Amino acid sequence: MSKSSKNTLIDNIIARALNEDKGKEDITTAAIFSKSEEATGEFIIKASGVVAGLDVAARVFALTDDNIKFDIVIPDGSPVKYGDIAARLSGPAASLLTAERTALNFAQRMSGIASATYEYVKKLQGTKTKILDTRKTVPGLRLLDKMAVKLGGGENHRIGLYDMFLIKDNHIQVAGSITEAITRCIRYRDAKYPGFKIEVETSTLDEVREIMNVPIDVIMLDNYTLENMRLAVEMIGNKCKTEASGGVNLDTVRDIALTGVDFISVGAVTHSIKALDISLELQMI
């Protein structure tokens, strides 16, 4: 995705969120404030973690009112602690209040994802293994969820169904065998999507043995025991990359990494996160 396409998509996400919140008019703010009243404010961190989404929050305010000034003090991807000032802003008080909740929603969620990802990444220090996200994201927010994962030190898996072949158990069931499913994907890839990677999900060592001589890029080891995962990694060697999936949490992730897998995918970093507590405190000028 090009930078311009990405920025357009983000603007569209923000526009939908602002419209959802504001509707026809922010009636409380319109009743209390005149358009000429000005205010300043600070994004204040209320818990330790990794901040993310400040660039998106800045865009929320810019799309609400281009008279708002938003200065990021602590860049996205940085560690933060209680009491830190992440950003300072100023402008028309009514516009600041109208955009406040939407901006905070994005920053809090993205910071929660970045913080959760960082906790997994820390567990893998000293290993070669990298944390991957999944497609278990909030519908409509995948781009922002995956941006937050990268800011937390993780890596993005495929963005959607269109940028990588991933053969899963239901595909194999329909195709009749794991080899047949791979063969069909290779044929389709070579005809229409040359260069695209192919990954296949396996659940047994026998399935790994079956595909050892088939040219694929990644073998997923889904819900393997640690012992079988080690055996699979040894069997695969340098033939392709390996990804562990299933049963991953902060208590198990390091033991999984020590089996020698290249990647560990963790759905929890996007589907089961706690938003980082961030507040906006305003003062009238």
Key words describing this protein structure:
single chain; 285 residues; alpha/beta; Aldehyde Oxidoreductase, domain 3; TIM Barrel; 2 domains; six-stranded parallel sheet; 11 helices; 12 strands; 19% strand; elongated
Structural description of this entry:
- The protein is α/β, with parallel strands linked by helices.
- It folds into two domains: 3-114 and 274-284, Aldehyde Oxidoreductase, domain 3; 122-271, Aldolase class I (TIM Barrel).
- The protein has helices at residues 3-22, 27-32, 54-64, 93-123, 142-151, 169-175, 178-192, 205-210, 226-236, 253-257, 268-271; strands spanning 38-45, 49-50, 69-72, 79-80, 85-92, 130-132, 165-167, 198-202, 218-222, 241-245, 263-265, 278-284.
- The strands form three sheets. A six-stranded parallel β-sheet has the order 6-11-10-9-8-7. A four-stranded antiparallel β-sheet has the order 3-5-1-12, covered by helices on one side. It has a two-stranded antiparallel ribbon with strand order 2-4.
- It is elongated.
